Amino acid sequence: MIRVLPRAGLAQKKDFVAKALCPRILVVSSADITDSCQVNNLESLAELIEPFGQDVSTQITIQDGQGAPYFLDKINIRFISDFVIEKQKQLSNAEVDGLVKNCVIGSAAADSADPAFMKDGSGIDKEVAANEEISIWSPWYTLFRQQWVNSMQASEHESFMHPVACLLAVSGSDADPVGSLRNLANHPVVRRAQTQSFAGTNMMLFYMVVHDERRATDTHNVDHRFDQVRKAFGQNCSLLRINSNTDLIGASDSSERTKISGIWSNSRAALQPLAPVSEKVYGGMLTMRDVAALRDAVKQMMVRGVIPHMQYVVRQLSDHTANQRRGITGRLFSAGRRYFGNAGKASSMLTGVDGETYFRYDSPEAMMRQLADYSFMLKDFRFAQSVYQVARRDFLAEKAWKCYAGAQEMVGLCKLMWEIQATKAEFDSNFDDAITIYLHKSHCSHPFLAIRSVILYYELLKHHKMLTYAPVALSRVPRVHVSLNALMSEQAAYSFLKFTPRPEVRKFSFYAMIASQQFQRADMGEMAHRCLRMVKHALATPAGLHSQSRAEEDEKAGYTEEKKLGIAQADAPDQSSSSSSSSEVTTRSSWAAIDSFVNHELGRQCMAAQNYDEALQYFMALMSDDKIPPKLQNKYLQELLQLFLESDDQAALHATEENKPSASVQLSIPNIDPLMARIIMSPTLEGEDGMLEWRLDGSAPAFASTFGGSAVMSPQQKDRKCCSVGETVAVLLVVANPLTIGVTLNSFTLDCEFTAAGEQSGSEAFEVTTVPSVILEGGQTSMVTVEIVAKQPGDLSIIGAKFLLCDILPTFKSLRLPGRRLNDTKEQRMTPVYSSDTSLGFRVDPELPHLHITMRDFPDTLMSGSVHKAAIHIANQGDLPCRGIALWLSHPSFFDIKSPHLLSDATASNGSLDVYQKQAIVNDTDTLSVHNALQDCSEFLLIGDAKQQLSGARHLVPIDCLAPGETLVVPLWARGDRVGDHSLKLSVGSCANTALHTGVSRVMRSRTFDVDLLVTPSLRVNAFVRPSSKNPQERLLGIEVENMQTDISVQLVQTTFSSGHYQLVPIFVSKQKTVPGGKVTIGPRQTINLMYRARPYHGHKQEGLEHGSPLQTAMPEWFTINALRQYIYSNEKPKRLPEPIDLIYSNAVLGDHEGIDCVHSSLQNYIVRSQSHRRRNMLRANYPMIPEKYHHVIFSLFETFGIDFVLFWAEIGGAMRSGHHSITGIDLGVPHDYVNEALNPPEEGAARAWLANTINEREMLIQSIANRAGAMANRHERVLDVAMRVASVNKGIQDANDESKSIMYVADISITVRNHSWRYGYKGRLDLLSPADLEQLFASDKIRLDYSGSRSSWSWLEKPTFSFIVGPQQTVEVNAKIACLTSGVVDIGLWKLRAAALEPSENGTVEAESIAAKAQYGSKSLECTIYPVLPCFISVVDSQE
Question: Dihedrals φ, ψ of 412, to 5°?
């Protein structure tokens, strides 16, 4: 059965430790061999065979110290030509610094590129940092560690540098090789090695015969002489055949010679990394066969001689030290010897060349050390560790500090070399104790060994990927060597990038800064600069690569902030020559100031190296940190200015086209946000200029979706400004100083690009003004205005701002912004591509009008209802005539516009009419046919064809053209339409050579004004309605007017009512409110009531509203029913507009003065526009599911039975203001919820809908309208009214006892029933009730609960119930008799009316069948029960009385 043995394979980083502590073989050769080596440019046999001692493939099974077998696959050996124990040379600081500098220079890395993990300005690449080796980032450290370990000397406390065997070599041409070998065995070098080394006289001697065919070609004699050697010295012999024949030089291949020479060149570079590169060709007389022979000779020597000898020594030493290594027995033996055998022990302890105590090589302590060292070299780390631990205890007991420190170091190395997972507590204390004792000044001072221990420890930590402990280990190097500390701090910084799962970037930055400071103190500026560049990249690393908590980083690294600061400052020499230190960083606010510190240090280093361009970049970056204290900010600013002056002077001395300094630099101060920049056309004017699209249909102008009227605009072009040639354009920039110190910006101007239109030249195309000085205090924000005058047509773009910082440093601030993301092509969708931004630019259009628009006398405050005269002046300052100007108002009810005129037209100016045109005689009743279609009268044509004037502004007559130099005056009156704060907008759009046409969209240059208006209360006007008890056709309308002023009286001038059905007749005005002279006034905080009787106008015949008549079908209500039904149930949307309506105007002049014409003047047009505006707002709120574009073809402006009221007034005294108040849509209680009827589908049914969404939308619309009707259910309306009057009083019934007295009076009562509905007839039953019937009806019907008359004073005679049928807008009369017991006043208003609606027939007759059951949706008055709400008093008078 084959036993699988564990392999002792080593990884690359463990190989470094194994090679550093590998066996040494002393080589002594004869002179002939030395001559053969020198022919090949090699000094000795040791140098000849040195390359073949690396990774010798042994492939043998050996036994450890306890007899257990293990497999040794390879081993490393070193060949030495001499051995001597000398005192370790103590290196000074200068020598260590020189060594580090030589390593940096030797690696050719001082001017090398930055590590690959440093991205270009974007931080640290996590993937690269995790995958690359640290050695790639710092090749100078690799040279240093190799040079330091190779420089170790043999010491008495360990056997690593001592030879384990001696190789004696003679030439094959020697006639007496045996004698020569014996003479070499007595060589002084061999004797010294046997005397001073651990091996002593038991050192193994290995004999080699080297046959060089160049000297002797007789192979038979060579074999014979080698047999003699083997017979004389046994099996530890070998024969090496080489051929260093010069005749073969020409025949050998040059590539082969180069390859052979590289073997020794690489070996020399590994052993002497700082040695100068030699141009010699090593092994030039050898062939690859000779190389193979040398490699095989070394292998045979190791397998057959050295390794078996070392195993033998291990077994022998293991037997001799068995008692020492046993448990309690060994310790008791050692303790007894310590106390009872001091004389013997003292004889085994000696003083070494360095003054330290060590043990004789034949002492048990030294043998244990040799046993452990040999086991370590044979890679039996487990057994070696156990022996080191025993020896360590004895060394500590005898206070042999150097030996103890060496044993502690080896215990830690064995734990890490042994392939097991160890924790920090298992090995870190060993290295900590060893290094501490090595550096202890009283016990022993061996910094060379301490540094070696740190290097080996660090290499093994890298192998096990335990770099978490590396910063602590590397910090244990002696503090006195500044350059060495810098080198180790740099390695510690790299260790933090290897942390998992994410690198510790802040710790990396901290240690890199420490390394930079130490490199700077060691006069290694390039290395210091490199470290700071790494820190700068680390500070740019995204937050996601940082650890979650700084405390976690500190705990993981084993450091507090105080300990880190101590690393940078402990044992540091005077730093007065340096302007900054790590202490400056740590004393400032955490990590916030590190970026500034790094930039400052990099800038100063570049200044010292006269690299002014790079220094400027770093100092400019300093200016972006607003957290720097003011004192430092001022210092940095002065250094930046001085740097520029120095660089400018140097550039002037050595100026060439290649190194000429740039004209300006880009600083981070001041802050100029291009997003906050504004371009203002004609800055002296009010309002906002822009290119807006005017649809000329009443809608608000919007940013143009087309440019030039055709091409589709991009989102950037929609905001693009345009100006005319010669117009002044102001650019407003918000300039902020982020620093806490003041700065001055001199000669502030703009850098622009101009693209001329067509073939015109761009030279002198524009002028830019210069602001002489802008003074910014610390933290101050200021507005800077720069004006540009365009002289040629084209496109101008603003690139940036230019100025002199503190009148010294030319600075440029870019104002470019990225455009929108392009997504048109596949490439653009896959790779982000952005268009050019045009927000900071404008177009100079020669066809664009240049108008100077001002608003004159616009008020800030108005009283509600009052009017104030203002004007808009439009002056043409361009070279082109303007043939189209339009005005748009956001609140048309606040403005009344009059016809415009030229300023030079004195006649038109003086003849402009007032808003209220006085008239001596005003008709009490007047009629006017008015357009009944809803219109948004927000736009007015000021210049253009009068035939193209918008609807609702027919009274306004525009002029034809506004020539250059002329001024147009637009008179208008502002009115406080509603109380409150209002933000009003007015836009004036203009075009040069093209007339405007209604409904044709056009892009025009527009100026928009924002007007803030505060409207305060003046009068409060309310309306209330009462039915008439005498005439059911009439309603009593009361107007309550309250003066809200506290010190001003108001005179009521006139009232005007407009309705499509009713005429309003005044009843009376409170007498006490009429002052002498016939004027109606209201004092401060007083109220007046105006009463009117609303009756159907006699011009409308009652039969005119019969079903199917032209008058009824033209009613607005009927139009809305049909249009809304078509919109809901038909696929074809309504298009027809409502017919005009004849409005009845009822005027009443209050007092003895002139009236106001509001029927045939422009005032009527303004009132209609205001009513239309309110009507549209009401419909928009009540019917949100009907698009606004269909409102004008579904709803009308006026309804037949609605009443609109206007009250004109004037102040008495004070400012003598005048105005008017209005109430729209006064409800007289007539049924008009006709909209519900449109919800019933037509007789032919609804149109077929193919999509489910269409059906759902229809149902939602119907439900929303029905819900609104339900919300109006509480509205008080009476479809039928009943009126009673006494027709005649009959003779009373005589008393039987006294005929002169009447015991009962009988009267004839005429009862009139009025149907107010225009749509339906009604079939009803009228029940007349007597007072005696009230008791039983109170609980059920609640009739006349307020009745207070006698229950037996009167009663109805004959039949008290009447049935009737009444048509729309018709009256029915019935007669009844009443009997009264006594004469006097009697309340007979007791009745109950039940009615049901009937559908009129085509011929106008009323059908007998009720339609309530037919209609799903309809008026709530289709079936109703009506009771009296007012008493009806009659007077019964005795004829005799």
Answer: -65, -40
